[in-house]
Write the structure tokens for this entry.
Amino acid sequence: MRIWDCHSHVRADETGPFVLEQMDAAGIERVNLFSRVRFSLAHIGWPWVDECIAVFGRFRAAAGYKTGASQMWIDTCRGTPDAWREEALRKAVPFCGVERLMFGVDGTPSNMPSQAPVHAAKDLALLRDVIGLSQEQIETFFWGACEGFWGR
């Protein structure tokens, strides 16, 4: 298996997905040249949330406006501060669909046991109580989209 390290948190191989973080929109759009490569843009693109969502639209257009055929996913690790979190998810959920938004938590082995439940609870409350997603949509957000990303 051949792996390329292109940028901070960027990995790709010929057969599987990779994750992009901290790369400008023009750089991300070049991934379109490799139509069989799946990728995820981390942290809803924070602080470039609108640009991340716009780039998702470009990849969806390249796939003939079929979200399921797009090669792009978005992970929602909490790089987005709480003050912007609701707005970011309110924009991303209807535009991208929960099947392309993956829950995620960044951390270290020492802080994951304490941080992951807090982040999951905050996102669950926001998605269910504020945005009004159904239980099925919430389940897709928390694990279904990730399963799709990894091809399961």
